[in-house]
Amino acid sequence: MSLIVHKYGGTSMGSVERIRNVAKRVAKWHAAGHRVVVVPSAMSGETNRLLGLAKDLSPDADGRELDMIAATGEQASSGLLAIALQAQGLKARSYAGWQVPVRTDSAFTKARITSIDDQRIRADLDAGMVVVVTGFQGVDDEGHITTLGRGGSDTSAVAIAAALKADECLIYTDVDGVYTTDPRVEPDARRLSVISFEEMLEMASMGSKVLQIRSVEFAGKYRVPTRVLSSLTDPDMPLAEEMKSGTLITFEEDEKMEAAVVSGIAFSRDEAKITLLGVPDKPGIAYSILGQVAEANIDVDMILQNQSVDGTTDFSFTVHRNEFARTLAVINDKISASVNPRDVLSDDKVAKVSIVGIGMRSHAGVASLMFKTLAEEGINIQMITTSEIKTSVVISDKYMELAVRALHKAFGLEIAAVKV
Amino acid sequence: MSLIVHKYGGTSMGSVERIRNVAKRVAKWHAAGHRVVVVPSAMSGETNRLLGLAKDLSPDADGRELDMIAATGEQASSGLLAIALQAQGLKARSYAGWQVPVRTDSAFTKARITSIDDQRIRADLDAGMVVVVTGFQGVDDEGHITTLGRGGSDTSAVAIAAALKADECLIYTDVDGVYTTDPRVEPDARRLSVISFEEMLEMASMGSKVLQIRSVEFAGKYRVPTRVLSSLTDPDMPLAEEMKSGTLITFEEDEKMEAAVVSGIAFSRDEAKITLLGVPDKPGIAYSILGQVAEANIDVDMILQNQSVDGTTDFSFTVHRNEFARTLAVINDKISASVNPRDVLSDDKVAKVSIVGIGMRSHAGVASLMFKTLAEEGINIQMITTSEIKTSVVISDKYMELAVRALHKAFGLEIAAVKV
Fold first, then answer.
1. Could you give the ipTM of this predicted complex?
2. Which sites bind ATP (chains A, B) (predicted)?
C-alpha cells in the first residue's frame, strides 16, 4: 500500500464531466489499496477571470488582495472534487492551504512554501479518506492568504508529497510526459520514459513548460519521485499500465544505465538581449546593474560577462521580451548615470536554444557538435552560456525552429536511447 | 467620529462598475471622518453558479464541502472591494471569516455565529484602514469553513457591528427601505422611516425579504441600530441626506412618539397547509409529529392545535410549498402509523397574510378590524394565529393580493403615521 499524491491541472478540472473523470481515476487508485492525496488547480479560466476583474478595478492591485481573490479558484475546485469523490462512494474531505496549514513566506503572488504540517492529512488518511488539498496557496505567519504564482499547484503537490514522504507524486496534465523537444517544432520529438532531476530542472527552466521549475527544485531537494502523465486517458485504464505511463523524474544514477549524452532540446522563443558595452570592470559592477533590474521586478534569464580589456568589460543579459521596454527604461533612468557604459546594444528578436543532458558531464565534444550543427545551417551564435549539463546559445529568433530541428537530429534524439 | 458597518448585497457587488460605486460610497463616509467596516456579499449569481456545479456533481452533496465552495464567492468579492477601495486612495484590507475569526457552530450550510474576535479589525481601523470582512461565513472550532445560509451576509454585518459596538449598521440593498407592504402588490405602499425591532422581526419572518431574520434577531439581542437603505442611489449624494434615508430599525420606544397601531402588512405566497384530524390529545403528540418533520430538515412555519374534543384534536401546520410533497411523504412513512390520525387534509394553494404592529399591544380591536375587512371582501379565513404584535391568517392564495390591498387601506397605511 503506497501513499500517492495526485496533481490535476486546470484543464483536467475544467468541467463537471472532467472533475467526475478525475474522481473516477482517484477511485481506481484508492480501490487498489493506495492512500491518495489530491491537489487540484482551479478550473481552467477561473484564475484569469478573477484576476481580470481585479485588473479592471486597478491595474496594479495590492498583492495581498490579489492572493485573497485568486486563492478562491482552488478552494472551489477542491470542494467540488471532494463532492465528486463522495459521489464515487469514497470518504473525502478538502482543505484550503491555510487549513493544513501550508505555511509560506509573505511574498504575495509568488510566495514560497516554508513548511507543511502533515498531521491533519495523515489523520484523515488513517480514517480511510481521500484528502483534497488546494494547490497554489498557503498562509503566512500573520494568517494572510498567499499564492505561489502561476503553476504553483505543481509545487504544492510536490511539497505535500515531500511532507508526507509519499511514494510518488503524479502530475496529471494535458501532455503525456516530457519530450526530447517540443513536438510542435520537431515532429520526431520523442517522449522520455525517465529523465534525471537535473535534466528536468534545466528543461523546465528553459521553456519546456511541463512543470513549474520550483516544483522540480522541491522534488530534487526532498527526492520525491515525480511522474508527469496524461489526465486525458480513459480513467478506467488498467492501473499497472497507468503506473508506467508518462515520464518519471529520477534521482538515482543507475550505474548499469547507459545515459544518453543529450536528453533534450529546450528553447525559449520570447527573449530580448541587452548589452552594456565598456562598463568599468570593478567589484560591484554586476550588482549595480542587476540590482536595479531586480528592484523593478524584472526577471533576468542569461547573464554574461566576458574577460575585460583595458579595465572595461561588456555586460550582457536577457529578459523576457515583454519586459524589454521596461528594462531599457530602467537602464536609462537608473543605471547609465552611475555605470556609464560606452554604449547600450539591445535586440528583442532573439531566442534561446539549449541542449540538456546529464551525459554531457562525462562526454567532451558535446558543445562543439552543437556549434558545428548550427554553423552548418548558417545560424550565427550571438551569445553562449554553459552549465554542467546544459549549453545554451542565443540566436536570431527567426532561426529558432531550424536550430531545434537540426540539433534534435544531430544528437539522435528521435531514436530511443539505450537507457529507455 | 463614528464606527459604521456597511453591508452590500450581491446586486450592489454585481459588476466591476458597481463595486467601484460601493468603493466611492465608502470613501465618502471615510472622508467624513467615520471608521468603516464593509461586509460584502458574493457578486450576484456567483453563489448559485458555484452551488450549481456542486449539484451537478451530486444532488445531495456534503454540507462541509458545499460551504468550502460557497464561501469563495464572498472571499473573491471582498478582495475585489479592497482593491477598489485602494484605487480610491484608501488603505484597505480584506479578511475571510476565518481570519477575523468569526467563530460559528458546525452546522454546515446554516451555521450560527458564536463569537467574533474584534482585535484584528480594531488594529486595522486604528491604522486608518477600511476593513472588508466577508459576509456569510465563519469557521468552526475544528477550523472548518462554515456558511450561515442564504442571506447570511446581513447577519454577518450586524454581528460584526455588535462585536465592534458600532454606532450604526447600514444594510445597503436594492430596495430603499422597509415598506408598509410589498409595493408590487399595493402601489400605495409607503416606506417607513422608522420601524421597531419587534415589528421588523415579524416583517422579516413573514416574507418582507429585506433582511435575513437572524440578522434582525442579532440586531435586537445586541441593540445594534440598523438601517436598511438603497445602494442604487448616486454614491456622491450628500452624506447628511444618506444618513437619513432608508428605514431605521430602533430599540427605543420613544414615549413622545405616537406609535402607529399597525406598521405593515406582510405576506407569504408559497405556503402549503397540512392538517392531521383526530390525533390523540396527549403529551408528546406535537413532538411526535413535528420532530419527524424537523428530522427531514423541513422548516415549519405556522403551527396550530385547537381545543380537543372527545380526547382527540386536530393538528395543523404550514410549510413552504416546495416542501409539500416531501412533508406528505414523511407523514405517510413515519408519522401516520404511530399517531394514527383519522384523516390527513392538505392544501398547497394557500397564502399567509399578517398585520404587524407594535401598537397592537395596547389597542384592542385590531384583529377584529382585520377579520371584518377580509369578510367584506368575501375572503374565507382558513387558519388564524396571533402573537403580541402580529395577527396572521391563512387564506386561499388566489385572494392574497386582494387581502393585502384591502388591509393596507383599512389600516390607513398609505398615509404617513404621526410618528414619522
1. 0.79
2. 7-10, 173-174, 179, 184, 209-210
